Amino acid sequence: MRAFRVAYDGRPFYGFQRQPDVPTVEGTLFDGLRALDVLGPDEPKPPGYAAAGRTDAGVSAVAQTLAFDAPDWLAPRAFNAELPGTVRVRASAEAPDGFHATHDAVRRVYRYHLHAPASGTDASPGTDAMLGRARDAAARLSGEHDFHNLTTDDEGTVRDLECTVDRDGEFLVVTAAAGGFPRHFVRKLVAVIHGVATGEATGADGTDRLDRVLSDESLADEAGVPAAPPEPLVLVGVDYPGLTFEPDPVATATLREVFADRRRDGLVRARVADEVLDGV
């Protein structure tokens, strides 16, 4: 059994999980394995295969992890030979028999680069006030809660969340860590924090909105929580006890080239590129 760390630019893909007739990260990885004769033409997936999680369309990753029964020669460099530049296998690790990339992950970390310049006017809080409100909201949302109002899933909505916010120039950097995340959770979490930070949420400090989000009441229609855009979101960490990944320097170099190009595509995209490059 071998585990692989995968980084990718999520913009060209309709999410991680393979789907018919549209490009996905998982489908691209499987195409690469077929080209290498690791996966047969009629095999849906490699034996023992599992991935750490499913990212939405447009979401990028530094630390997506997949594992399967791979031949000894399948190093990251060999894997990358049959992958596009937007997907790079950057490290690998020997995993014990029975290892499961989904179930054995004990912690996942996402980071969202929220473009939130502060005007400092009466209608829009200044930098310090915005950061203070965002941090208060993150603290209120941290801990174990039923987050049924921040996901489209009906099950697995109780999570123990660690959420922090830092200011970096024109961005509020929201970091969310938990054992796992239900669908659309981080993007809805960011939307709530942004609403409190800017003063758009009801109540003088947004506490009314937070109380409703965390209540047993199911919010829908106008009262529901929209999902923030996916492009500024990056999966930056997946932790496995006892697993040590060996980075491939050639794979890291090519990944840097791909995301260096992304820097020139706009302010938010440049921030995500920096996140990826810092992570490798």
TrEMBL record:
<dbReference type="GO" id="GO:0160147">
    <property type="term" value="F:tRNA pseudouridine(38-40) synthase activity"/>
</dbReference>
<feature type="binding site">
    <location>
        <position position="110"/>
    </location>
    <ligand>
        <name>substrate</name>
    </ligand>
</feature>
<feature type="active site" description="Nucleophile">
    <location>
        <position position="56"/>
    </location>
</feature>
<dbReference type="GO" id="GO:0003723">
    <property type="term" value="F:RNA binding"/>
</dbReference>
<dbReference type="InterPro" id="IPR020103">
    <property type="entry name" value="PsdUridine_synth_cat_dom_sf"/>
</dbReference>
<protein>
    <recommendedName>
        <fullName>tRNA pseudouridine synthase A</fullName>
        <ecNumber>5.4.99.12</ecNumber>
    </recommendedName>
</protein>
<dbReference type="InterPro" id="IPR020095">
    <property type="entry name" value="PsdUridine_synth_TruA_C"/>
</dbReference>
<dbReference type="GO" id="GO:0031119">
    <property type="term" value="P:tRNA pseudouridine synthesis"/>
</dbReference>
<comment type="function">
    <text>Formation of pseudouridine at positions 38, 39 and 40 in the anticodon stem and loop of transfer RNAs.</text>
</comment>
<dbReference type="InterPro" id="IPR020097">
    <property type="entry name" value="PsdUridine_synth_TruA_a/b_dom"/>
</dbReference>
<keyword id="KW-0819">tRNA processing</keyword>
<dbReference type="InterPro" id="IPR020094">
    <property type="entry name" value="TruA/RsuA/RluB/E/F_N"/>
</dbReference>
<dbReference type="InterPro" id="IPR001406">
    <property type="entry name" value="PsdUridine_synth_TruA"/>
</dbReference>
<feature type="domain" description="Pseudouridine synthase I TruA alpha/beta">
    <location>
        <begin position="137"/>
        <end position="241"/>
    </location>
</feature>
<keyword id="KW-0413">Isomerase</keyword>
<comment type="similarity">
    <text>Belongs to the tRNA pseudouridine synthase TruA family.</text>
</comment>
<dbReference type="Pfam" id="PF01416">
    <property type="entry name" value="PseudoU_synth_1"/>
</dbReference>
